[in-house]
Protein backbone atom coordinates (compact mmCIF):
# COMPACT_ATOMS: atom_id res chain seq x y z
CA UNK A 1 0.00 0.00 0.00
CA UNK A 2 2.69 2.63 0.80
CA UNK A 3 4.42 2.01 -2.56
CA UNK A 4 1.09 2.24 -4.38
CA UNK A 5 0.11 5.44 -2.57
CA UNK A 6 3.52 6.97 -3.38
CA UNK A 7 3.13 6.12 -7.05
CA UNK A 8 -0.37 7.64 -7.17
CA UNK A 9 0.83 10.87 -5.61
CA UNK A 10 3.58 11.14 -8.20
CA UNK A 11 1.37 10.00 -11.10
CA UNK A 12 -1.51 12.37 -10.32
CA UNK A 13 0.83 15.34 -9.98
CA UNK A 14 2.35 14.57 -13.39
CA UNK A 15 -1.09 14.03 -14.91
CA UNK A 16 -2.34 17.34 -13.55
CA UNK A 17 0.73 19.36 -14.48
CA UNK A 18 1.72 17.56 -17.69
CA UNK A 19 5.38 17.54 -16.71
CA UNK A 20 7.63 15.38 -14.53
CA UNK A 21 9.86 18.37 -13.78
CA UNK A 22 6.94 20.50 -12.59
CA UNK A 23 5.64 17.61 -10.48
CA UNK A 24 9.08 17.15 -8.96
CA UNK A 25 9.23 20.84 -8.02
CA UNK A 26 5.75 20.73 -6.48
CA UNK A 27 6.36 17.53 -4.49
CA UNK A 28 9.97 18.37 -3.64
CA UNK A 29 11.03 14.98 -5.05
CA UNK A 30 13.69 14.25 -7.64
CA UNK A 31 12.42 13.95 -11.20
CA UNK A 32 14.26 10.64 -11.61
CA UNK A 33 12.36 9.12 -8.65
CA UNK A 34 9.03 10.11 -10.18
CA UNK A 35 10.00 8.85 -13.62
CA UNK A 36 11.17 5.53 -12.16
CA UNK A 37 7.87 4.96 -10.33
CA UNK A 38 5.85 5.65 -13.48
CA UNK A 39 8.05 3.46 -15.69
CA UNK A 40 7.81 0.58 -13.18
CA UNK A 41 4.01 0.68 -13.16
CA UNK A 42 3.83 1.02 -16.95
CA UNK A 43 6.01 -2.08 -17.24
CA UNK A 44 3.84 -3.91 -14.71
CA UNK A 45 0.53 -3.22 -16.49
CA UNK A 46 2.05 -3.52 -19.97
CA UNK A 47 0.66 -0.21 -21.23
CA UNK A 48 1.89 3.39 -21.25
CA UNK A 49 0.15 5.85 -18.95
CA UNK A 50 1.46 8.92 -20.77
CA UNK A 51 2.18 10.01 -24.29
CA UNK A 52 5.67 11.56 -24.32
CA UNK A 53 5.33 14.70 -26.45
CA UNK A 54 7.84 17.48 -27.18
CA UNK A 55 5.63 19.85 -25.19
CA UNK A 56 5.15 17.56 -22.20
CA UNK A 57 3.24 14.48 -21.09
CA UNK A 58 -0.38 13.70 -21.94
CA UNK A 59 -2.52 10.95 -20.39
CA UNK A 60 -3.29 7.91 -22.52
CA UNK A 61 -6.63 6.07 -22.21
CA UNK A 62 -5.01 3.85 -19.56
CA UNK A 63 -3.72 6.96 -17.84
CA UNK A 64 -7.22 8.46 -17.75
CA UNK A 65 -8.49 5.31 -16.04
CA UNK A 66 -5.64 5.46 -13.53
CA UNK A 67 -6.32 9.16 -12.86
CA UNK A 68 -9.99 8.44 -12.12
CA UNK A 69 -8.97 5.60 -9.80
CA UNK A 70 -6.50 7.89 -8.06
CA UNK A 71 -9.19 10.51 -7.47
CA UNK A 72 -11.44 7.90 -5.88
CA UNK A 73 -8.55 6.57 -3.80
CA UNK A 74 -7.75 10.04 -2.43
CA UNK A 75 -11.40 10.59 -1.52
CA UNK A 76 -11.64 7.19 0.16
CA UNK A 77 -8.46 7.84 2.13
CA UNK A 78 -9.93 11.14 3.35
CA UNK A 79 -13.07 9.28 4.45
CA UNK A 80 -11.02 6.64 6.28
CA UNK A 81 -9.12 9.31 8.17
CA UNK A 82 -12.39 11.03 9.07
CA UNK A 83 -13.85 7.75 10.35
CA UNK A 84 -10.75 7.11 12.46
CA UNK A 85 -11.16 10.58 13.97
CA UNK A 86 -14.80 9.65 14.68
CA UNK A 87 -13.55 6.81 16.86
CA UNK A 88 -11.63 9.38 18.88
CA UNK A 89 -14.80 11.43 19.33
CA UNK A 90 -13.68 14.34 17.18
CA UNK A 91 -16.37 16.19 15.22
CA UNK A 92 -14.13 17.24 12.39
CA UNK A 93 -13.42 16.40 8.80
CA UNK A 94 -14.13 17.69 5.30
CA UNK A 95 -17.40 17.27 3.42
CA UNK A 96 -17.94 17.89 -0.30
CA UNK A 97 -21.41 18.56 -1.69
CA UNK A 98 -22.78 19.34 -5.17
CA UNK A 99 -25.84 21.51 -5.79
CA UNK A 100 -27.68 23.08 -8.70
CA UNK A 101 -27.45 26.81 -9.31
CA UNK A 102 -30.87 27.59 -7.80
CA UNK A 103 -29.54 26.58 -4.36
CA UNK A 104 -26.51 28.89 -4.40
CA UNK A 105 -28.51 31.43 -2.37
CA UNK A 106 -30.88 31.17 0.54
CA UNK A 107 -31.30 27.77 2.19
CA UNK A 108 -27.92 26.12 1.53
CA UNK A 109 -25.74 29.13 2.54
CA UNK A 110 -27.90 29.56 5.66
CA UNK A 111 -27.57 25.86 6.50
CA UNK A 112 -23.79 25.96 6.05
CA UNK A 113 -23.56 29.00 8.33
CA UNK A 114 -25.47 27.10 11.04
CA UNK A 115 -23.30 23.99 10.58
CA UNK A 116 -20.10 26.02 10.85
CA UNK A 117 -21.38 27.62 14.02
CA UNK A 118 -22.19 24.27 15.64
CA UNK A 119 -19.31 22.21 14.19
CA UNK A 120 -16.32 24.51 13.58
CA UNK A 121 -14.07 21.49 13.01
CA UNK A 122 -15.95 20.49 9.85
CA UNK A 123 -14.99 22.16 6.58
CA UNK A 124 -17.31 22.11 3.58
CA UNK A 125 -16.65 22.27 -0.16
CA UNK A 126 -19.59 23.30 -2.35
CA UNK A 127 -19.67 22.61 -6.09
CA UNK A 128 -22.36 24.41 -8.13
CA UNK A 129 -22.99 22.32 -11.25
CA UNK A 130 -25.47 21.57 -14.01
CA UNK A 131 -28.17 19.12 -12.97
CA UNK A 132 -26.74 16.03 -14.68
CA UNK A 133 -23.23 16.85 -13.50
CA UNK A 134 -24.49 16.89 -9.91
CA UNK A 135 -25.78 13.35 -10.46
CA UNK A 136 -22.47 12.27 -11.97
CA UNK A 137 -20.43 13.80 -9.14
CA UNK A 138 -22.50 11.88 -6.57
CA UNK A 139 -22.35 8.58 -8.46
CA UNK A 140 -18.59 8.87 -9.07
CA UNK A 141 -17.87 9.55 -5.40
CA UNK A 142 -16.48 13.01 -6.09
CA UNK A 143 -18.81 14.45 -3.43
CA UNK A 144 -20.43 13.09 -0.29
CA UNK A 145 -23.95 14.01 -1.38
CA UNK A 146 -25.81 16.38 -3.66
CA UNK A 147 -29.12 18.02 -4.50
CA UNK A 148 -30.63 17.81 -7.98
CA UNK A 149 -33.86 17.63 -9.99
CA UNK A 150 -35.56 14.41 -11.10
CA UNK A 151 -33.24 11.69 -9.74
CA UNK A 152 -35.63 8.71 -9.81
CA UNK A 153 -34.28 7.17 -13.02
CA UNK A 154 -30.75 6.80 -11.66
CA UNK A 155 -30.09 3.46 -9.95
CA UNK A 156 -26.76 4.53 -8.52
CA UNK A 157 -28.35 7.20 -6.29
CA UNK A 158 -30.24 6.87 -3.02
CA UNK A 159 -32.84 9.58 -2.36
CA UNK A 160 -32.62 10.71 1.27
CA UNK A 161 -35.29 13.42 1.07
CA UNK A 162 -37.33 15.14 -1.63
CA UNK A 163 -39.76 18.01 -2.21
CA UNK A 164 -41.89 19.17 -5.13
CA UNK A 165 -41.39 22.49 -6.90
CA UNK A 166 -43.45 23.99 -9.71
CA UNK A 167 -43.03 26.18 -12.77
CA UNK A 168 -44.44 29.70 -12.74
CA UNK A 169 -44.40 33.28 -13.99
CA UNK A 170 -42.15 35.75 -12.24
CA UNK A 171 -43.03 39.45 -12.00
CA UNK A 172 -41.78 42.47 -10.03
CA UNK A 173 -43.66 43.43 -6.87
CA UNK A 174 -46.72 45.49 -7.77
CA UNK A 175 -47.09 44.06 -11.28
CA UNK A 176 -50.80 43.26 -12.00
CA UNK A 177 -49.90 39.76 -13.16
CA UNK A 178 -48.48 39.00 -9.72
CA UNK A 179 -51.91 39.26 -8.08
CA UNK A 180 -52.82 35.89 -9.56
CA UNK A 181 -52.20 32.77 -7.55
CA UNK A 182 -52.26 30.61 -10.69
CA UNK A 183 -52.55 31.22 -14.44
CA UNK A 184 -52.62 29.22 -17.64
CA UNK A 185 -49.55 29.31 -19.86
CA UNK A 186 -51.60 31.12 -22.50
CA UNK A 187 -51.94 34.11 -20.12
CA UNK A 188 -48.44 35.22 -21.18
CA UNK A 189 -49.41 35.58 -24.85
CA UNK A 190 -48.26 38.93 -26.20
CA UNK A 191 -46.08 39.69 -23.17
CA UNK A 192 -42.27 40.01 -23.39
CA UNK A 193 -40.78 36.95 -21.71
CA UNK A 194 -37.43 36.17 -20.11
CA UNK A 195 -36.97 32.46 -20.69
CA UNK A 196 -34.43 29.93 -19.36
CA UNK A 197 -32.01 28.37 -21.85
CA UNK A 198 -30.20 25.02 -21.80
CA UNK A 199 -28.84 23.44 -19.65
CA UNK A 200 -31.36 24.71 -17.05
CA UNK A 201 -33.69 21.85 -16.11
CA UNK A 202 -36.94 23.80 -16.72
CA UNK A 203 -36.34 24.11 -20.49
CA UNK A 204 -38.02 20.76 -21.12
CA UNK A 205 -41.19 21.80 -19.30
CA UNK A 206 -41.42 25.03 -21.31
CA UNK A 207 -41.02 23.00 -24.51
CA UNK A 208 -43.90 20.75 -23.41
CA UNK A 209 -46.13 23.79 -22.80
CA UNK A 210 -45.31 25.28 -26.19
CA UNK A 211 -45.95 21.97 -27.91
CA UNK A 212 -49.32 21.30 -26.26
CA UNK A 213 -50.68 24.85 -26.48
CA UNK A 214 -49.23 25.80 -29.86
CA UNK A 215 -48.40 29.19 -28.36
CA UNK A 216 -45.59 31.16 -29.97
CA UNK A 217 -44.12 33.05 -27.03
CA UNK A 218 -42.17 36.29 -27.29
CA UNK A 219 -38.65 35.39 -26.11
CA UNK A 220 -37.38 38.89 -25.41
CA UNK A 221 -34.33 37.50 -23.54
CA UNK A 222 -33.04 33.97 -22.98
CA UNK A 223 -30.39 33.08 -20.41
CA UNK A 224 -28.81 29.99 -18.87
CA UNK A 225 -28.31 31.83 -15.56
CA UNK A 226 -31.04 32.05 -12.93
CA UNK A 227 -29.63 35.18 -11.32
CA UNK A 228 -29.59 36.95 -14.70
CA UNK A 229 -33.25 36.07 -15.33
CA UNK A 230 -34.21 37.25 -11.85
CA UNK A 231 -32.29 40.51 -12.27
CA UNK A 232 -33.91 41.23 -15.63
CA UNK A 233 -37.37 40.70 -14.15
CA UNK A 234 -36.51 43.08 -11.31
CA UNK A 235 -35.46 45.62 -13.94
CA UNK A 236 -38.86 45.34 -15.61
CA UNK A 237 -37.56 43.88 -18.87
CA UNK A 238 -40.32 41.28 -19.01
CA UNK A 239 -42.10 38.40 -17.30
CA UNK A 240 -39.79 35.58 -16.26
CA UNK A 241 -40.42 31.84 -16.23
CA UNK A 242 -38.66 29.92 -13.46
CA UNK A 243 -39.45 27.39 -10.72
CA UNK A 244 -40.65 28.21 -7.24
CA UNK A 245 -37.24 27.04 -5.98
CA UNK A 246 -35.36 29.59 -8.07
CA UNK A 247 -36.99 32.66 -6.50
CA UNK A 248 -37.62 31.73 -2.86
CA UNK A 249 -35.41 34.49 -1.50
CA UNK A 250 -36.80 37.30 -3.68
CA UNK A 251 -40.44 36.29 -3.10
CA UNK A 252 -40.01 36.02 0.67
CA UNK A 253 -38.43 39.48 0.69
CA UNK A 254 -41.38 40.91 -1.25
CA UNK A 255 -39.28 41.85 -4.27
CA UNK A 256 -40.97 39.50 -6.72
CA UNK A 257 -44.28 37.68 -7.15
CA UNK A 258 -44.65 34.06 -8.27
CA UNK A 259 -47.69 32.84 -10.21
CA UNK A 260 -47.91 29.09 -10.73
CA UNK A 261 -48.53 27.87 -14.29
CA UNK A 262 -51.65 25.74 -13.88
CA UNK A 263 -51.79 23.79 -17.17
CA UNK A 264 -52.63 20.17 -16.33
CA UNK A 265 -49.97 18.86 -18.72
CA UNK A 266 -47.33 20.02 -16.25
CA UNK A 267 -46.37 17.96 -13.23
CA UNK A 268 -44.36 19.18 -10.26
CA UNK A 269 -40.60 18.70 -10.49
CA UNK A 270 -38.89 16.59 -7.83
CA UNK A 271 -35.93 18.13 -6.03
CA UNK A 272 -33.98 15.45 -4.19
CA UNK A 273 -31.19 15.18 -1.65
CA UNK A 274 -29.15 12.17 -2.75
CA UNK A 275 -26.19 10.03 -1.78
CA UNK A 276 -24.37 7.36 -3.79
CA UNK A 277 -25.96 3.96 -3.27
CA UNK A 278 -22.59 2.22 -2.96
CA UNK A 279 -21.01 4.79 -0.66
CA UNK A 280 -20.81 4.83 3.14
CA UNK A 281 -20.81 8.35 4.56
CA UNK A 282 -18.15 9.52 6.98
CA UNK A 283 -19.24 10.77 10.38
CA UNK A 284 -18.69 14.40 9.32
CA UNK A 285 -20.70 13.87 6.10
CA UNK A 286 -23.48 12.32 8.16
CA UNK A 287 -23.63 15.40 10.38
CA UNK A 288 -23.83 17.82 7.43
CA UNK A 289 -26.31 15.61 5.58
CA UNK A 290 -28.55 15.40 8.65
CA UNK A 291 -28.49 19.15 9.19
CA UNK A 292 -29.44 19.91 5.58
CA UNK A 293 -32.04 17.14 5.48
CA UNK A 294 -33.78 18.40 8.62
CA UNK A 295 -34.90 21.64 6.95
CA UNK A 296 -35.30 20.34 3.42
CA UNK A 297 -39.12 20.56 3.46
CA UNK A 298 -38.98 24.36 3.41
CA UNK A 299 -37.85 24.21 -0.23
CA UNK A 300 -41.18 22.75 -1.36
CA UNK A 301 -44.06 24.55 -3.05
CA UNK A 302 -46.10 26.20 -1.63
CA UNK A 303 -44.16 26.21 1.65
CA UNK A 304 -41.35 28.25 0.10
CA UNK A 305 -43.59 30.85 -1.59
CA UNK A 306 -45.82 33.42 0.04
CA UNK A 307 -48.73 33.38 -2.38
CA UNK A 308 -51.30 36.08 -3.07
CA UNK A 309 -54.93 35.10 -3.45
CA UNK A 310 -56.85 36.30 -6.50
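Q: What amino acid sequence fits the structure above?
A:
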Amino acid sequence: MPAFSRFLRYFMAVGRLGSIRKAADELNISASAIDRQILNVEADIGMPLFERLPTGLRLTAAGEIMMAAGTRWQKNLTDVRAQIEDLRGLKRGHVDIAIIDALAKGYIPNAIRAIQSRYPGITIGVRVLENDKVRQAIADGEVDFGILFEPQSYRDLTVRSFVEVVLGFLTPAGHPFGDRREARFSACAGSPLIVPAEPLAVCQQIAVLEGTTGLQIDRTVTSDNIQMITSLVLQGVGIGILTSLDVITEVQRGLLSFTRISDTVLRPMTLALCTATARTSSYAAGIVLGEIESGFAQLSYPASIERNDI
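Q: And what stands out in the fold?
A: DSSP finds ten helices and 13 strands in the chain.
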